[in-house]
Input
Amino acid sequence: MTSPTPVRTRIAPSPTGFLHLGTARTALYSWAYARHHGGQFVLRIEDTDVERSTQASVQQILDSMHWLGLEYDEGPFFQMQRLERYHAVVEQMIAAGTAYRCWCTPAELDAMREAQRARGEKTRYDGRWRPAPGKTLPPVPPGVKPVVRFANPLHGVVSWDDLVKGPISISNEEIDDLIILRPAPEGAADAALGIPTYNFAVVVDDWDMRITHVFRGDEHINNTPWQINIFRALGAPLPQFGHCPIILGDDGQKLSKRRGAVSVTAYEEMGYLPEAMLNYLARLGWSHGDDELFTREQMVRWFDGSHLAKSPAQWDPAKLAWVNAHHLKQADDARLAALVRQQLATRGVAVDDLDRLARASALFKDRCSTVVELADWIEMLFVPVTPRDDDLRDHVTEALKPALRELRERLAEVDWDKAAIAGAMKQTLSAHQLKMPQLAPALRVLVCGRVQTPSIDAVLALFTRETVLSRLQHV
Ligand code: GLU
Output
């Protein structure tokens, strides 16, 4: 069944830093909810903080969305390109009496708060410029640029049924008259228009963009009553709100830059796959029965806005690695080959043979959690290894050396594939009355620089013959 109003969701990051994990998660929920309902997902860049917004951050957000595969149907829209629209709405509101200009200076506001504190009252704007029948407003002071404030209803209650937290109610008496438009900072482009504040611009945008469902972090829960009141003042339909709890670091503190939170793109560099990030992020705050491992498609099928967790989830790097390991195993080898190539390139190892990288990925991916680990394995195919002295002493014994020399001769002759390599090893073993567990570790140490590898004949077949022969040269 399709709902009468098409579902439209959005993610509205501020370009004042990287796209952090909490925002990526709400982007995922918004995207999955829209996809689940066959609706649309919108990207909006909330760049009204002109001093802190940067183009680099916008780019980072776009890159992160692209990498995660959260395709948006509309946008990116930029709030700073919509100033005229906000300005027009402000003028309408002033005309309708739902907003008014306020000429309080910062010093006056400080004094107001000081006096309220001294009287033991909650600090709030006291409404001195709010027009009311029969009220005389103060004289307009010269040289002060006014702000515009929303005339919040003085009485009554704002309530909504939060998709995550359930019913929430706040008395209007708790809420003061919010600034919705400020004079632009000196020198800012379009200074004459003034800059809308978040709580106002977000409402005009959600209205204009016909957003039906807003998922966001619960740090915004205190903003929602203002926003609902502004929607109502504009006669605009209310979206449904879902406020997701914050993500805690593995130390139980708020996830922050200092506590393990890095950008989404940093996870790409650390060798995580986007589908694993989505899987892991989805489970931080949402569940579908006991399912821990799922694809994007499954998530879209299951994500209907129910089973969102009310309490904060904890970031668990070990679980993320486990989820990534699962998706790495499922991943197509040709795709992994390209990722490993990129990873090796960052280490100064240029490899063109994607087919060999794909075969190597197939062999090693089962024992890796990240693409970085996969590249750690595969690097030995291209970069000289340095066996440890104790491994050489323990495994490349004098007694074994004649067999290793013979094997080297045989390997110089055989076809270069796994079966032929296995055949050469078998013949050498029987000629020297040896067993595989004696020979294999020696080969691993000499050729791979480590004692443990997958089946050695399969591993050797990934190397070039020249590399294997040269690593067996000095026995
Ligand atoms: N720009 C706000 C933020 O990044 C958006 C909040 C919202 O989704 O309404 O937190």
Q: What stands out?
A: Residues 12-14, 46, 202, 216, 220 surround glutamic acid (CB under 6 Å). The domain at 1-76+198-330 is CATH 3.40.50.620 (Rossmann fold).
